[in-house]
Prior knowledge:
The chain is mainly beta. It has a domain at 56-164. The protein is built from one helix and ten strands, in the order H-E-E-E-E-E-E-E-E-E-E. The strands form three sheets. Strands 2, 5, 6, 8, 9 and 10 form a six-stranded mixed beta sheet that branches. A hairpin with a 2-residue loop joins strand 5 and strand 6. The longest helix is centred in the first third of the chain and has 20 residues, at 2-21. The chain is flat. The protein starts with a helix and ends in an 8-residue tail after the last strand.
Amino acid sequence: MFIRLGRATAALFAASSLVLGSAVVASASPAPASAVQAPQPIILTHKGKAESKPAVVIRKLSDRTVAAGELATVKPRVKVAKRAKLVSKTLTVVKDGTVLVDAKRKARLGVGTYEVTTKVEYRTLVKQEVVKVKTKGNKVKKVKRNVWSGLLTETKTQTLVVALEPADGNDD
């Protein structure tokens, strides 16, 4: 008897939490006649796992200021998740339709406005396998081996402004 009572109580709590979790609170004042609409059906959904985070995030390049005659060094800014392996990160820099730097790890740029395309190649961890390996003395040892996905690519194009640093009024 106690088992049935426990199951019934659990079922009642589960049903009430589903209904109360998606209930809409209504106000006590009546709605104007023009705002009355047909009743909408309540759709119950189960909240599953949160969306997984991307394996690679290309971060924003900040604008630079340089002194007269100097060059600004620009490198790709990339954040890699734990279960991802970075293969390469390169830059392509275009100014006024002319490609200045093509698929390099860094670029040195003078004053101007540039279109910078960051390309990141990476692999994600698919699974870990346990492999038996023979060691000295013919002992068998279990070793974990990572299995990686095929090559994946992420690209992002940004505008970068390299500005001239304001000159000091003191020329001593």
